[in-house]
Amino acid sequence: MALAGAQADEKRQGGGQQVNLAFFTQDSYFSVHFFLDHMKETFSPVVTVAFQGDHYAFSEMAAQKVFHDRCQCLPNRTFEQVFESVEKGAARYGLIPVENSLTGSIHRNFDLLLEKNLHIVGEVFLKIDQTLIANLGVNLAAVKKIYSHPQALEQCRLFLSGLEGVEAIPSFDTAGSVRMIKERQLQDAAAIASRRAAQDLRMQILAEQIQDVAENYTRFLVIAPQPEPLGTPNKTSVVFAMKNIAGALFKSLSVFALRDIDLSKIESRPMRNKPWEYIFYLDFSGHLGMPECRNAIRHLEEITTFIKVLGSYPSGNGEQA
């Protein structure tokens, strides 16, 4: 949902739905929220969750961490298709990676959060242990090509640089790379993916925990068509553009500091069709049911040219799998 001006209505840039901020009062917000929680716990239906990659990908593991036995996972080849699956109703939720502790942000998904009309409703952190996998009978000396998602290859840069005469080849997915070398019965190739992918596809593990740093985590977000958080919300994500005035960024951040609202992330991205102008993604503690957070957003509207609330949701709290 997007906000424009300091009025009570939230308006998405370019028109569309309107959301009345008056709904987000402390009592009404939590009454609705607890009702939704009760309904989910009572019926606990199987939910379809779209993710990018093949079965046994880290994204699927993250989805199962969130929804447990209720999760029916729907593989998609691209991040764009994950969003489309949720928009068109093929999946109730989508799960997307947005940040890795070694390689940083996954910018395409931040762009899609801005472009699409979906909401962040949950967050989960997953420890990523990268594994080198090959067909049965293949040894490391025989490997000349290693396939995986670009993020996985980047996370294993030191390991790969120590292999002479081996080419690292980007692929659309980690687990999908394992399936590809199995289906083609490649004897001079390996893939980087999860240990689970090796086990479930009955492949051979050549090396484990090959990421550059052992403490390797990825942050995933759960997206949905409606702003209904998966638990008690305590974190909010917004994106905004500032007016070209002196001290604009300082003033934008001050609206949170004045109200003792903790900021956990801020990142800039280039604005399309406007060279050298930027938009800012920001995460803060709290939700729009809290008066101080609503007032901070209204204050921010006064010094920005555009603002969109991406969602209020329960924080993953940096939890480790």
Number of DSSP helical runs: 10
CATH superfamily descriptor of the largest domain: ACT domain
Overall residue-averaged pLDDT value: 87
What about the largest sheet? Answer: 6 strands, mixed
Distance between the termini: 31 Å
Q: Provide the succession of SSEs.
A: EEEHEHEHEEHEEEHHEHEHEEEHEEHE
Number of extended strands: 18
Helical/strand content category: alpha+beta
| Count of the separate structural domains | 3
The rounded Rg comes to 21 Å
Report strand %.
Answer: 25-35%
Uncertain runs: 1-20, 22-31
Helix content: 25-40%
**CATH structural class of the largest domain:** Alpha Beta
Report on the structure:
The chain is of the alpha+beta class and 321 residues long. It has three domains: 125 residues, Alpha-Beta Plaits, CATH 3.30.70.260; 97 residues, D-Maltodextrin-Binding Protein, domain 2, CATH 3.40.190.10; 84 residues, Periplasmic binding protein-like II (D-Maltodextrin-Binding Protein, domain 2, 3-Layer(aba) Sandwich), CATH 3.40.190. The protein is built from ten helices and 18 strands. Strands 4, 5, 6, 7, 8 and 14 form a six-stranded mixed sheet that branches. A five-stranded antiparallel sheet has the order 1-18-15-17-16, sandwiched between helices. Strand 2 and strand 3 form a beta hairpin. The protein is elongated, with a radius of gyration of 21 Å.
